[in-house]
Design goal:
The structure holds two protein chains of two kinds.
Chain A lengths: L3 E2 L11 E2 L10 H7 L1 H31 L15 H7 L2 H32 L6 H8 L1 H4 L2 H11 L6 H8 L13 H28 L4 H9 L4 H29 L3 H6 L11 H11 L3 H9 L1 H21 L1
Antiparallel strand pairs in A: 1-2
Helix pairs in contact in A: 2-14, 3-14, 4-9, 4-11, 9-11, 10-11, 11-15, 13-14
Chain B lengths: L16 H24 L10 E7 L4 H18 L2 E7 L4 H11 L5 E5 L2 H4 L8 H10 L5 H7 E2 L2 E2 L2 E6 L2 E5 H6 L9 H13 L4 E2 L8 H12 L17 H17 L11 H7 L5 E4 L2 H8 L16 E4 L13 E7 L6 H12 L1 H11 L3 E3 L9 H4 L25 H8 L2 H10 L4 H16 L1
Helix pairs in contact in B: 2-14, 8-10, 9-10, 10-17, 10-18, 16-18, 17-18
The chains are: A mainly alpha, B alpha/beta.
């Protein structure tokens, strides 16, 4: 049967196309392949799968294998089961690094969330030069971490700290503060730098979330007599919660596995007091060449991050369902 | 034997003229080695178009790196290969080495500090021929240069230089507190340091995770009190001893009384900056402080406006109860197994370490780096060098190697790379009891040597 399909608005003006009769002539193999949705999907997915396999699956599998072997630099290792994990767990520096990682992640995330939210609420208002301020706010996020951390390191320098100089000149201190030469100070300095660097990510994402909230809701709440705090707590916050949860998950993952900042700022010192799992894994695996042990230390991050992500995604799903 | 018949184009059956010449050249080069290449003043055919990458630290004497770059041009001409130096922060070298070995790609020759060659020995080309040649050519090796690069009879890397470490101190400030000569004992050093710290000019010492100045103090301090990491067999950890505990107790007092407590976070450059800006009175270091003060004497002044260099003297680590040993950092060049041109790399090393080239570099180093053999103690440089620099001439002779009292080993390198001895002192200076800090360190050594 021949069917004519008219194109355009009028049959006369349209282009008449004649479809081939089913079974009249079998299309070529190439044509069939090209029209196959399954094949097309596979082709389109292949590059992504290849990249994922090459840059995520392979290193991950390799890391798991290394952690179960006694591979060291230049030496192919043997399978040693969980010996590296047991050794790490019995290592006092590892335990310090493990505790530090939680402490660092917890406080840095809290500060980034609180300050990021505050900044987002401020930037959501209309004021002169809003665009400039928004752009400037992103600077810590844009500048490469290594460079900005070097600048912070100079500011915290044990001998030439500009902060110590400033505090001394203004009469706040009489002796230098041991910013990086004391373990506790060093850890808080790292948290400050991490907060400074990560806050814009929170602010800009939360700002995007804020802008999706209809001003009518705020207006209605105002008319009902809600003050600023009530409007935030009962209107803004519930609507912003899903975005916040996503940002917090991302931030926890990034902070928990942070390397660059500590490596440049303190190198894990003094006396291992600021080592995180990533920096300690680097010192053991890369600097000392004990690749198996280094891989085991870094894999300790995996279950922790997995649980965090699972809990938060579960919470998010519950929010969506509600 | 059947003689091949030439065809009409000068080609004998199966052998072209080009192939014959290349073959002859290869045989000639193999027979004559680097001497042949240099005598011919032409690059060998096999090296043309190839590139040789050498990875080294960023030298504390920038002119040394400039000299090496200049020599790279000469080497490129002599060897017919492009010789390229890359200089990176010494604290990043080990990471680069690990990455290069594991990926089997990277620089053809890498500088090895301390006894790193033992840690990476399975990935290094045997350079015994070069090691023996240099020993014969330039006299006996200093013991730590040999221990750092030789495993039994096999040379793992070719010793290049040694950076001697002594205390640089401000003579006038020492005079002001009544110390007119360099302290002879560690206790004297603490006493004078105490007076200086009260005047706001403490002694500077790093206890941070940094490659040179930290181990150059922490290892000799153990030795000076009679302690050791392991016994002579290198199998039994003996660190947890009365002697080591005494050294830690000394360090706790010395740190509190005499040192700049910012040193916990110092790297190898921090004490140089602190000294040159007049913040500290003394620090254990290579000669780079003196050399920098001399080269920058127009800008680097003391508190009276005079060139600071005139006020700088050097002294060795003072005696502990068991005597004194320095830890002078040995440097060597290793040829990497993954490299595509090991022969070329070895030829290059023979060229670079030869008396002519090394002599030029040694001259530029002005005593900061000395030779790995005693031959260089006789260099004319020592006759003209400034008086305060003369102590470096034989400084390298009084050195032990990390991992004492055991034989050189990769395990000693592991202990060094984890900064265990430095952290032992750092922990104690931050409040841990001396006995507990030593127990911790001995436990860590036990895990490595066990």
């Amino acid at each position: 049967m021949k069917k004519s399909i008219a194109g355009g608005s009028g049959g006369a003006a349209g282009i008449a196309t004649t479809l081939p009769r089913a079974g009249a002539s079998s299309p070529g193999r190439m044509t069939r392949w090209l029209e196959s949705e399954r094949l097309l999907a596979t082709l389109l997915l292949a590059p992504a799968l290849l990249l994922l396999g090459l840059f995520i699956a392979y290193p991950f599998v390799m890391g798991v294998w290394l952690s179960l072997s006694n591979t060291s630099v230049g030496n192919i290792g043997e399978f040693v089961w969980f010996r590296n994990f047991v050794k790490a767990w019995n290592d006092s520096i590892f335990r310090t690094a493990f505790g530090n990682t939680f402490f660092y992640t917890f406080w840095a995330t809290i500060f980034k969330l609180a300050l990021g939210m505050w900044l987002a609420l401020l930037l959501n208002r209309s004021f002169r030069g809003k665009r400039v301020v928004r752009a400037a706010m992103l600077l810590p996020f844009i500048v490469p971490t290594v460079l900005s951390t070097f600048a912070w390191r100079w500011m915290f320098d044990p001998t030439f700290s500009v902060l110590n100089w400033l505090l001394y000149q203004t009469g706040f201190i009489t002796t230098k503060l041991p910013f990086l030469s004391d373990g506790t100070y060093g850890m808080w300095c790292a948290i400050v730098v991490n907060t400074w660097r990560g806050m814009p990510f929170f602010a800009i994402t939360l700002l995007a979330g804020l802008q999706t909230i209809s001003p009518d809701l705020q207006e209605a709440a105002s008319l009902d007599g809600a003050n600023g705090w009530h409007r935030f707590w009962h209107v803004t916050w519930p609507l912003l919660k899903p975005v916040t949860v996503v940002v917090v998950v991302f931030s926890i993952i990034q902070t928990f596995s942070d390397f660059q900042l500590i490596y440049v700022l303190t190198g894990g010192g003094p006396a291992n007091a600021t080592h995180l799992l990533a920096t300690y894994a680097y010192q053991i695996g890369i600097a000392t060449g004990l690749l198996g042990e280094g891989a085991a230390i870094s894999l300790f991050m995996l279950p922790v991050l997995f649980i965090v992500v699972w809990l938060q995604l579960r919470y998010l799903r519950r929010l969506e369902g509600a | 034997m059947k003689t091949p018949e030439p065809d009409g184009h000068g080609v004998v059956s199966g052998v072209t003229r080009r192939r014959f010449i290349a073959g002859s050249a290869a045989v000639g080069i193999a027979a004559t080695g680097i001497e042949g290449i240099l005598a011919a003043r032409r690059a060998p055919a096999f090296a043309q178009g190839t590139r040789l990458n050498i990875l080294r630290w960023v030298d504390f004497i920038p002119a040394c790196d400039v000299e090496l770059k200049r020599q790279a041009v000469d080497a490129s001409k002599a060897l017919g290969a492009e010789v390229v130096f890359e200089f990176i922060n010494a604290n990043d070298l080990q990471a680069r080495i690990t990455a290069a070995i594991q990926s089997a790609s990277g620089p053809d020759v890498i500088m090895m500090l301390h006894n790193w060659a033992h840690l990476y020995q399975n990935s290094l080309v045997d350079v015994t021929d070069l090691g023996e040649w240099q020993g014969k050519d330039q006299g006996a090796y200093y013991s730590q240069a040999e221990a750092a690069a030789k495993d039994g009879k096999r040379w793992l890397a070719l010793p290049h230089g040694i950076v001697g470490l002594q205390f640089a101190y401000r003579k006038s400030w020492f005079d002001e507190v009544g110390q007119t000569s360099w302290p002879k004992t560690l206790d004297e050093l603490r006493q004078v340091g105490m007076k200086l710290k009260k005047k706001g000019k403490p002694i500077g010492q790093t206890l941070g995770h940094t490659f040179g100045d930290a181990p150059a103090w922490s290892y000799p301090l153990v030795w000076g009190f009679g302690g050791a990491e392991v016994d002579k067999t290198g199998k039994k950890v003996v660190l947890n001893s009365k002697e080591t505990i005494e050294s830690v107790k000394f360090m706790q007092a010395y740190w509190k009384d005499a040192c700049d407590e910012g040193g916990f976070a110092w790297d190898d450059t921090s004490n140089n900056r602190a000294f040159l800006s007049g913040e500290i009175a003394a620090t254990l270091n290579g000669a780079s402080i003196y050399i920098a003060a001399k080269r920058g004497q127009d800008k680097i002044k003391d508190d009276k406006g005079e060139a600071m260099v005139k006020d700088i003297l050097h002294g060795p680590i003072p005696n502990g109860p068991a005597g004194t040993w320095g830890y002078h950092v040995a440097f060597a060049h290793a040829v990497m197994k993954y490299g595509k041109n090991p022969k070329l790399a070895k030829d290059f090393l023979k060229w670079l370490h030869g008396k002519e080239q090394f002599g030029k570099w040694f001259q530029v180093a002005e005593g900061f780096s000395v030779g790995s053999t005693k031959y260089w103690e006789q260099h004319p440089l020592w006759n003209t060098i400034d008086e305060p620099m003369k102590g470096y001439r034989q400084a390298a002779a009084a050195s032990r190697m990390i991992g004492y009292a055991g034989p050189p080993s990769a395990r000693a390198t592991e202990v060094y790379s984890k900064y265990i001895l430095t952290d032992m002192y750092a922990k104690a200076c931050q409040g841990t009891k001396a006995e507990d800090a030593v127990t911790w360190a001995a436990g860590e050594l036990g895990k490595t040597y066990g």
